[in-house]
Design a protein that fits this description.
By secondary structure, this protein is mostly helical. It is built from 17 helices and no strands. Among the domains are: about 60 residues, no CATH class; about 80 residues, Methane Monooxygenase Hydroxylase, Chain G, domain 1; about 210 residues, Formin, FH2 domain (Methane Monooxygenase Hydroxylase, Chain G, domain 1), CATH 1.20.58. The radius of gyration is 48 Å and the shape is flat.
Length: about 525
């Protein structure tokens, strides 16, 4: 195709000819007369797939631009240099003006965000070595360096740049950090004090202990003088015999009936714990330590600059150092006292947490305050939720007939009630005045001598020709109160007691007769 227009290339990957053998697709395609033959319309394809001349020229122009060598010497990583360039764009002033604002602590030019950017731009030890090696090799000439490299050289020329900018940053963010940490520490302390002083919470655990000892009476778990805080989660899982409510429902019912305002105290405590759980106690410890370390670092910087001032030759540098020492000294005189106060508040919070652990008889070495308050938050949430459910459904604590709501046979009792309800619905046409059927008769018990009594003789039929005797008159039914039918086990126990009493009486008579002889 001579003098044909350039077409858009199809950048496929060719299969080597030695691989196009049987049984591949390309072996089947090659030389098969049975397949279709395609005659290409070359002019049509050239018109459809030709390259855009303007785009081609633009592409070549862009390629030439990219091939042009940079007029700056780049010593930093490309991404690092790009980040420094982006950070410098927010200052909108020259490198010298930025350094002047740092030396004079001019906060009209530098705010908190810009100080954070400057801290991230400070050269590392390796970067500083690379820059100094370049200057030494090029006799101090830095004009050919890129903008990022030139600015790092400016920062490195400042006295103690890392400590200087760090001290300025500490001064600017100290007020915000002090207010935030102080408020959170006070909130954590008040929450711990509220847990120990809440009368309603104390009554809840006392009520749980009373009910638990009633349920466990006669068992090795009974007679407890207290229970672990982790055991409080079992109260919500212990179902009542009516299979509807739990011990927490019953406890809320008793608490409401005994004292007004107890539920409101629990609600207030729950809200206080909810607010405190937004705080991380580990975060408070870390933050207070960081503030204390930063304050000590700023004091060290002021001391080092004071020693360095004596060795400075230029008056301009000495003036900047004296200005820095004066402003930071005034600030640190009050900041140090406030940092000490934050440390005292942190120690008070940890002391209150230790008292909470002792209050609930927890191991102080394994006590996790965050986990404890989270569990207490869950427990109070379930308890108050049961109180709301009781307002809408009082049958949650309804006592089953002839049974205690704390019966251990909750499943048996509930199933018997279910059977009674089914019988009432299914047998509406039956005579309900009939007495309940008697339990099946037990086999005869042996007599004291060990022999079994003979069964009664069968009734004799009347002789032929005679009418059977009239039935005896029916005895008048006495109105007695209905008693529940005894179970088979109760009947057997009564009979065994009678036999034992009879044997004891006969043995007593035999002993008395031997004494008379």
């Amino acid at each position: 195709r001579k003098h044909a227009p350039a077409l858009k290339m199809l950048h496929w990957k060719k299969v080597p000819p030695m691989k196009c053998v049987a049984p591949t697709l390309w072996h089947e395609v090659k030389g098969k007369s049975s397949l279709l033959t395609f005659e290409l319309e070359e002019k049509e394809l050239e018109a459809l797939l030709c390259e855009d001349p303007k785009a081609e020229k633009k592409k070549k122009k862009t390629a030439r631009k990219q091939q042009r060598p940079s007029k700056f010497v780049s010593l930093l990583d490309m991404k690092r240099a790009q980040n420094i360039g982006i950070a410098l764009a927010q200052f909108r002033c020259s490198h010298d003006e930025i350094c002047r604002a740092i030396l004079e602590m001019d906060m009209d030019v530098l705010d908190l965000d810009k100080l954070l950017s400057l801290k991230s731009m400070l050269p590392s030890a390796d970067e500083e070595k690379t820059l100094q090696a370049y200057l030494k090799q090029n006799k101090g000439e830095s004009a050919k360096l890129g903008p990022a490299e030139q600015f790092l050289l400016k920062l490195a020329s400042l006295p103690f740049p890392q400590d200087w900018i760090g001290a300025m940053l500490f001064r600017e963010e100290f007020q915000l950090r002090k207010e935030e940490l102080g408020g959170k520490l006070r909130q954590a302390i008040e929450c711990a004090v509220s847990v120990r002083s809440c009368v309603a919470l104390r009554e809840v655990f006392l009520l749980g202990l009373t009910i638990g000892n009633f349920i466990n009476e006669g068992h090795m778990l009974g007679g407890a003088v207290g229970f672990t805080f982790q055991s409080s989660s079992l109260l919500g899982g212990n179902k009542l015999s009516n299979r509807r409510g739990t011990l927490l429902h019953y406890m809320m019912h008793v608490l409401r009936s005994k004292r007004e305002g107890a539920e409101e105290e629990l609600v207030e405590l729950k809200h206080r714990i909810d607010d405190t759980m937004k705080i991380s106690f580990e975060f408070l410890v870390t933050e207070v330590r960081e503030v204390s370390t930063a304050c000590a670092g700023a004091q060290t910087t002021v001391s080092n600059l004071g020693k360095m001032e004596e060795k400075m030759e230029e008056e301009e540098e000495r003036r900047h150092v004296r200005n820095f020492m004066q402003k930071m000294g005034e600030f640190l005189s009050t900041a140090a006292e406030e940092v000490t106060g934050m440390g005292d508040d942190l120690a008070r919070m940890q002391q209150e947490h230790a008292q909470v652990a002792a209050y609930f008889v927890e191991d102080s070495g394994k006590f996790n305050a965050g986990q404890f308050f989270a569990d207490l938050q869950t427990f109070l949430g379930e308890l108050l939720s049961c109180g709301e459910e009781l307002k809408n459904d009082s049958k949650l604590i309804a006592v089953p007939p002839d049974h205690s709501i704390f019966s251990k046979d909750a499943d048996t009792v509930a199933s018997s009630h279910e059977e009674e309800r089914q019988e009432e619905t299914s047998g509406e046409g039956e005579d309900k005045s009939l007495p309940p059927p008697l339990p099946p008769a037990l086999p005869p018990l042996p007599s004291p001598d060990g022999s079994f009594p003979l069964p009664p003789p069968p009734a004799l039929a009347p002789p032929p020709g005679l009418a059977p005797p009239p039935p005896p008159p029916a005895a008048k039914e006495k109105k007695t109160s209905k008693k529940p039918a005894k179970s088979l086990q109760e009947i057997a126990e009564e009979r065994m007691k009678k036999i034992a009493a009879r044997k004891a009486a006969e043995e007593g008579k035999a002993v008395q007769g031997e004494g008379d002889v």
